[in-house]
Design brief:
Layout (H helix, E strand, L loop, with lengths): L2 E2 L2 E2 L11 E5 L13 E6 L2 H9 L18 H9 L7 E3 L1
Length: 92
């Protein structure tokens, strides 16, 4: 890979293009962050991007979470036991 400056030349072909990224925003096991994020998927489909942008510049799909009854101990334990909720994906 040819390099100019601190990045590969291939990055020049991405300038001006719109893309959506699904990123892993989960907590790392060792709690040490190097400032990087893991990209899980990339979307360059203009129809999907236009639909996403039409909703506003800072729109992110959100998972609906049912309300928790603080007086019911079962609700508190069930919500924290779900491994599915620990994985987080966001569009940026």
């Amino acid at each position: 890979v040819d390099k100019v400056g601190s990045y590969p030349l291939e990055f020049d072909s991405l300038v001006g293009k719109k893309m959506l990224f699904t990123v892993d925003a989960g907590v790392r096991p060792n709690n040490i962050s190097d400032g990087s994020i893991r990209v899980r998927r990339v979307c360059s489909d203009s129809v999907i991007i236009d639909k996403f942008c039409a909703e506003g510049p800072f729109t992110t799909p959100v998972k609906a979470i049912p309300p928790i009854d603080l007086d019911d101990d079962d609700d508190l334990t069930d919500a924290s036991d779900s491994a599915e909720d620990s994985e987080s994906s966001d569009f940026v």
